[in-house]
Structure formats: C-alpha cells, structure tokens
Amino acid sequence: MIRIAAVGDVHVDKDVLGRFRPALEELPERADALLIAGDLTRHGTVEEARCFVTEFGGLGVPVVAVLGNHDHQSDQQARVSDVLTESGITVLEGDTTVLELHGHRLGIAGVKGFGGGFAGASASNFGEREMKDFVGTTEVIAERLENALKSIEVDALVALTHYAPVPDTLLGEPLEIYAFLGCYQLGRAIDAAPTALALHGHAHHGSERGRTPGGVPVRNVAHPVIKQAYNVYQLLTEHVDAELVAS
Amino acid sequence: MSTQLDEYLEAEIQSMLTDGRIAELGITVQRREHLLVLGGEVESGRRRDEICRQINERFPDVHIVCDIGITRASAPSEVEEIS
Ligand SMILES: [Fe+2]
Ligand SMILES: [Fe+2]
C-alpha cells in the first residue's frame, strides 16, 4: 500500500506563510509523499518560490512538483525550479522520478501541460502562425508526457500535470474557457501507458473526480476544489481474500 | 456620468484581477440590479481585502459586495482508495 498526498494551486506568497504548515507537519503520519500539481506561486518570482519552500519544504517525505502557468508569469521558471530543487523538491517537466515506498516502486511522470480543448471543441494546428504555435506547444508537451510515462517500469504509475487531461474535472468552470484549462492530448498520453492515477490542478472552479476515455482515474487537486491542505490517495491496496483466509 | 453595470465593466474588472499585482484568475463577478458581487476563493485574507480595495478605488460609484472566501487549509480526515 502506498499513500500519496496531493494539492495544487496553493499560490504561495508572503501572505500565505504559516497557513499550510500545521497540516503539513501532520502529513508524514498520513502519506508517504506529497505531489504538487502546479501554481506553487502567485507570479512565479524567485522570492515567492522561496516562500513556497519555507512553507512546503523539509517535510520528512519526498515532495514532487510540476510548475503551473502562474509559475511562468515572471519568465523566471528556470530560477523558480532551481530554488525548489536546491531545497530538495523534485521538479518534473517531461521527465520522471521513482520513489521506493514500503517495498513498492511509485513512478511519477510530470509536465505542466497546456490548453487546447477537448473532443468536439478543440483548437487545431492550422492557420495563423500563432495558432499553430499554440496547438504545437500542446502537442509537444503531451508527447513528452507520453514518452515519460512509457519510460519507466514501476508498481504504480502516476501522471502529474497542472492542466487538465479530461473535461470531467472542469465541471463548474464556464464551458467557454475549457480550451484554456486543458487538452485531450494529455488524456491520450495518460491512456497510452499503464497509468494508475492522473492528478492535475489549474481549474479552481472545477470538480474533483473524472476518468480518461481509457478509464484512468483523474483527480483535480486544485486547493479551492479540495478545500483542505491536501488530499490523500491510496494506491496498491493489498486485498486479502476473506474466503481464502478462512479455508 | 456614472459607471454602467454592464459586460464591459465586468470584463474590465476581470482584467484588473488578472493583469496586475493581484493575479487572481478565479474570481467571479456577478452583476445584480444595483450592485456587483465578487465571489470565489483566495489564499489569504490580505489578498481578499486588497482585491476589494482596488476595485472599490477604481469604481467608487459602484456598489460592490465582496463574497470572496479564504480557502480552508486544514489536514484531511479521509483517505481515498484508488482502484
Ligand atoms: Fe491556479
Ligand atoms: Fe493555473
């Protein structure tokens, strides 16, 4: 059994310091690792990244993150990543990390992701340069996720993104902005590998649960959606067959 | 001339919320007959107060009510089994 805690969209700045810490101090009793689904900061500054590290660092369990669009706002995403990495947080962008937990191998593949929309209402790689750049970015990022997911053999495989891979978890958001909240290409990447769970954030007004077309459970862990410091998910539950035990 | 409670005002407030220092993409703006209701959730009381102050300052003749909440950050009491 593995328990992973997850949250996204905590948007840390000086004014948030101390708000998550009491719940985070209890995290090692409840989960084996913490996954962060992007939007760690408000404007993606180095100063805010340091605030994030102060609040979410040194927990005694591994912390794995992807960045979100807010973490790109100041064009300092590389330095933001460095601040996180220096503090011991693993930042994924098109790559993977494998954690050994209770004798199980938990693999996490992560990308920020991008918009583009979903079946029947998606943007196409066609027309103006700007449009082709937009959808081209979506396609490249999804391909990197697919390759990352397929690159590891583990007992439980988790896909971590900021943007949503399915529309199910966007329910509650205005339909008109779905194309800016996620894309079907991320879902297709997740379905191309034996993914056990997909976690994302970004959709603050969305809903918690969904599934990809291929049946992979999807959870929107944006802080305003889960309304607590983090959610905890249990993977690889050992099912004991009661009848077998009895005989 | 007094500020019209129309779609342009709503759009202007949304862009104020996202463009500048505030950087909140998740605030809702609802027009009522004589007032404007701000909704959604942010990460701190200081952030909520700043949003309401800036919008009140920019549109002094509009009656604005601030129903923005602060997202709770307590530890979870349950575990969800994924299968
Ligand atoms: Fe966010
Ligand atoms: Fe976001």
In short:
The complex is a heterodimer of chains A (about 250) and B (about 80). By secondary structure, chain A is an alpha/beta fold.
Provide a descriptive summary of the structure in words.
- The complex is a heterodimer of chains A (247) and B (83).
- Chain A has 247 residues and is of the alpha/beta class.
- Chain A has a single domain, classed as Purple Acid Phosphatase, chain A, domain 2.
- Chain A contains 8 helices and 13 strands.
- Chain A has helices spanning 21-25, 27-30, 46-56, 77-86, 129-150, 184-191, 223-226, 242-246, and strands at 2-7, 33-37, 63-66, 90-91, 95-101, 104-111, 117-118, 121-122, 156-161, 197-200, 209-211, 217-220, 231-235.
- In chain A, the strands form 3 sheets. Chain A has a 6-stranded mixed sheet, covered by helices on one side. A 5-stranded mixed sheet of chain A has the order 4-3-2-1-13.
- In chain A, strand 9, helix 6 (184-191) and strand 10 (197-200) form a beta-alpha-beta unit.
- The mean pLDDT of chain A is 96.
- In chain B, the strands form 2 sheets. Chain B has a 3-stranded mixed sheet, covered by helices on one side. Chain B has a two-stranded parallel ribbon with strand order 3-5.
- The longest helix of chain B has 14 residues, at 45-58.
- Chain B has one domain: Histidine-containing Protein, Chain: A (2-Layer Sandwich).
- With 83 residues, chain B is an alpha/beta fold.
- Classes of the chains: A alpha/beta (247), B alpha/beta (83).
- Strand 13 of chain A pairs parallel with strand 6 of chain B, so a sheet runs across the interface.
- Bound molecules: fe (ii) ion (2 copies).
- Residues 39, 68-70, 162, 202 of chain A line the site of one fe (ii) ion (FE2).
